[in-house]
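Appendix B, Record 12. Input sequence as logged:
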Amino acid sequence: CSFTVTVTGLPPVIVCPANIAVTATAGQCGTNVTFAATESTAIPASVITYTENGNTVSSGSFFTVGIHTITATATNAVGSSVCTFTITVTDTETPVIITPANIAVNNDAGVCGAQISITAPAATDNCGIASVIGVRTDGLLLTAAYPVGVTGILWTVTDVNGLTASHTQTVTVTDNEAPVVITNNITIQLDANGNASITTSQINNGSTDNCGIATISLDKTTFNCANVGINTVTLTVTDIHGNSASQTAVVTVVDNIAPTVITNNMTIQLDASGAAAITAAQINNNSTDNCSIATYSLDKTSFDCSNVGQNTVTLTVTDVNGNSASQTATVTVIDNLAPIVTVPAAQVFCANASGSTQYTIPAASATDNCSIATVTYAVTGATSRTGTGYDASGAFNIGTSTITWTVTDVNGNTSTGSTSVVVNPLPVATYVSSNADAFCNQTSLTASSSINPSLYSWSASNTPGTFSANPVLSLGLTNADGNYYLYTQSSVTGCVSASAAVYNFQKQTLSSSYTILAYKEVELGKYNKVLSGSVGIMTARGEAEFKSYSGVTGAGSFVKAPKIDKDGSGITLNSQIIGIAAVSLPTMQYNTASTNSLPSLTASQNNATLSGNYKNLTIKKGISVTVSGNTFGNIRLEEGASIRFTSTVLNIENFTADRGAKNNDYTYIRFAPNTSVRVGNKVSIGSQVLVNPESYQVSFYMADQRKDEEKFTVKGGDTRVIANVLMPNGKLRVTATDSDYDDDKHGDCDHKAHSSKDCKHKGHDHNDCNHSAHAASNCQDDVYMTGLFIAEEVESKGNKVIWNSYDCSAPAAPITSVNSNKGVTQSVSAEKVTTTSEEELKVTVMPNPSTTYFT
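Logged structural output:
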């Protein structure tokens, strides 16, 4: 089958593009624009045309700056359709100005600006220039004068489309004209502080500038004392544009202000020379000046004693610029220096021996810086008196006095000075003589003084000799008879006694001058010697008899008897005095003890100590005992026995000491120091007996209340007795070994070694003779008697007996003799005989306490 389709046409429907806005092409006053309208599908097709103001345009055509209205028409067979749109072309390109050069010129002379000709700048534009206009920033016409500085000209170029461009051209006018500076010279005055200042207006004298002055300055505006005089300053003027110029001026600175003077009142002290000085600085009290002070001066600077009191001085102050001023001050001069008193050294006197109290004192003296008005003195202490002047000599009492001088100067100042005056008393010398009863071979005078400590001077003349601290004067046989004078001297003051204490020494009247004293008779046999001390007879009918080779030979010794009989040859007597030996004897001590009720004892134990008192005490052979008792009837020591008494007072009726033992041991009788042995009847001493070998002072008092005769007998050889014997009613007999021979032949011992059968000494025990060789001085047949021996009769016989005195003040050093068995030595000197003995140590231990050792 077939069918028919009939197609009918439609008119076009056109759609315009949106309005178009574009900018002009650079450098052109428009631009090419493309565009296209659209249409709906039309049947048939249509044709689209574009027109502007009836003029056909096409897409891509050049459109000028402005708004173009474009009509688009679509036409086909059916019909047409129209729409419109706009094309806007905008001119955005501004004009281009040919930049004019900036202008720079200097100001016209004397004018603060410049006259300048101005030309407008050229300009271009894509569309065209409408106008060129120039405007000054100061609002003046372009032809008006331009001021110093920068003036801008704003050039504005406008194109035909109203677009503009602008540029500022600068016109710079430079002011290089300096100011004209005119100055003044001025004078200024420093003020009270020494300062001054100026301003520019004082120096500026109408300075000018073409434009105007900005600043005016000075290089120095302040002045002080250092600127007094002419100073050059510089005034600098700067205009508003920085141009400057300078000109100097003279500023004369003057100071005509005087110092301000301030003073001190002051007090000054005169010195030791009476002078004083001050300085201006001491018076000045911080005076001031606006500048500074050059000098200070005083019208008076020195003062002396005449100026004491107030003085007016003037201080003148001158400043460095010659201005001066003055002010007064009061200077008070004082003198408070006391006088200087010089006093003599302390005076020490010994009292005048004449008793005068007048003493010369060295004068005092004084000095003062001015002068002395008065001098007085006062004596106080042991002496009281006053006076005037420097010399205080006069009366002074014993003791310490003080002189005080008071010195006052003319200004009332006072000083004192003191001197002590010591008048020491003179010592009074006294002495005490040794007891006339003393057993001593010297008289001892012990000095004393009324002032202690003192020194002592003993001399044989009535003038002081050498002083020493020893107060004791010992006088013996060697000293001359006569007066001995004692002076004392104070060890502290040196004062010497006015007169001496006198002692009259007559040795013939002193028992201490003698070794042997007898009432009736002294008989000294052959070879018997008194080697020290003298021999005296104490009754008118008494006699001293001397056999051949006997003698009294000690230094200073003498024999004093009513009758002196020398029977034989070789007799030596130092001095013979016919007369009675009138002496004071030692005080007698008596044995008054009773022994009837006492026990008896025989000591046979060696080294025993016996403490009791005994009627009969026997010490067996060779036994040694110590006895502390003090009362005994009869004491007997057998051969070689030894006894030691410890009591210093012994009462014994009879005392017998047998000979020493045949083994050559001695018999020893020992005492305590200073022992008194009171014997009622007799003492008998045999050979080889040592009595008091320690040489202590031991005295035998042979007496009792009965009127019988006491006896003291020494018989034998090698015997030594060191003791005093006082027996006024008895006989002291000393008989040496060979006494049985009437002729007492000294040659019986030749001192050579020999046998016992050849011994010439017959009739004696074997031990009585030492048969070994020995010196004559060591012959052990001798008997030594040392002490003071006083008896009714004294008989000394045999070969030989040696008598010596005993010195209490210096006990005789022991004399020793050599014994071959005993180690005992003995020697004889002309002055004294002493004995020391050595014994074997005997130790008995019973019962034996140990088989090993014992203490």
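Residues 739-748, 763-768, 812-838 have pLDDT under 50 and may be disordered.
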